[in-house]
Write a structure and sequence with these properties.
The chain has 300 residues and is α/β, with parallel strands linked by helices. The protein has 2 domains: 107 residues, no CATH class; 172 residues, Rossmann fold (3-Layer(aba) Sandwich). It contains 12 helices and 9 strands. The strands form 2 sheets. Strands 6-5-4-7-8-9 form a 6-stranded parallel sheet, with helices on both faces. The protein has a 3-stranded parallel sheet with strand order 1-2-3, with helices on both faces. Strand 5, helix 6 and strand 6 form a beta-alpha-beta unit.
């Protein structure tokens, strides 16, 4: 804020909201401080930053709504808009994978938040006799600190009742490695208990890989708005119920991959029309121009 106030006096400061800190803290393991204290502090910091901005932008419909609610009661609140990230279209192999890998991407330090337990439990309850040769799929988890990978693998195998093969891969920002993960995947899961938007799911959609997302995510809200509800899985409520819902959704997808990959291609084509970076940039610039126009009119 000091740069905006001093070096760039009169500049339009845009505050982006990309997560709901107060809500996700409740799904993290906070051993040193009370969760309520940390959660409220994050909410207060976000609110102070947002209220002093010229414009607030929520990434996706859920975060736009949360940002607008956060600013209620502020006498002179900035406008709040929502923008959708662009859908990066990328090629995928033309054939269906022979070896079924179910992929989960995301930092595993917050494994309960990311719903890794739900993924393992759901996959551990399926009847694999209907699959080719009766082989279970491999759960591939990308995002673990190297020192914790072995313990995480053991934990997920235990949650799956020892019925599942598990590979845990280190966290990486290497795009080539991440694209290789997607290319080998038969299905991407995003079973997060809370997700402001869900860019990992967007990556899979752009690659036309079958995807299932938690109903607590921002991308799920967008999918519902686009009448694409078959890719959204109920995740709220008791863990047993959520795991059962994920098991049913995975069963419908994994046991008919030809149809699943055809639906994934249709989903990519349907969303690509309205999700471009050009449109996101245009919407943002239009909102900034509106702020500037109001300033000129008011002489501020």
């Amino acid at each position: 804020m000091s740069l905006c106030d001093d070096a760039f006096r009169g500049a339009v400061r845009v505050h982006f909201v990309h997560t709901v800190g107060e809500e996700i803290e409740w799904f993290k393991n906070r051993a040193l401080e009370p969760i309520s204290t940390v959660a409220e502090a994050r909410d207060w910091t976000e609110r102070q930053l947002a209220r002093s901005a010229s414009l607030v932008v929520g990434v996706g419909p859920l975060l736009r709504r949360k940002a607008a609610t956060m600013l209620r009661g502020v006498q002179v609140a900035p406008d709040v808009i929502g923008i959708l990230p662009g859908l990066g279209i990328r090629d995928r192999p033309s054939n269906i994978p022979d070896d079924r890998q179910v992929l989960v991407l995301g930092r595993t330090e917050d494994r309960y938040l990311k719903g890794l337990d739900l993924a393992a439990r759901a996959l551990g309850t399926l009847d694999y006799g209907a699959l080719d040769h009766g082989r279970p799929p491999t759960l591939v988890v990308r995002g673990s600190p190297a020192a914790e990978a072995a313990a995480l693998r053991d934990e997920l195998i235990e949650l799956a009742d020892h019925r599942l093969d598990v590979l845990v891969r280190d966290y990486t920002a290497d795009q080539e490695l991440l694209e290789a993960d997607l290319a080998r995947a038969s299905l991407l899961l995003m079973p997060s208990r809370h997700e402001g938007f869900g860019l990992v799911a967007l990556e899979a959609i752009g690659a036309a890989i079958p995807v299932l997302v938690s109903d607590t995510s921002g991308i799920a809200e967008h999918l519902r708005n686009e009448a694409q509800t078959r890719f959204v899985v109920p995740t709220r409520g008791r863990p047993d119920d959520a795991a059962a819902a994920w098991s049913r959704a995975i069963d419908r997808t994994l046991f008919d991959l030809d149809a699943a990959f055809a639906r994934a291609l249709d989903l990519r084509d349907a969303l690509a029309i309205g999700m471009t970076w050009q449109r996101a940039a245009d919407d943002l610039l239009t909102a900034i121009d509106s702020v500037r126009l109001i300033r000129r009119r008011d002489g501020t």
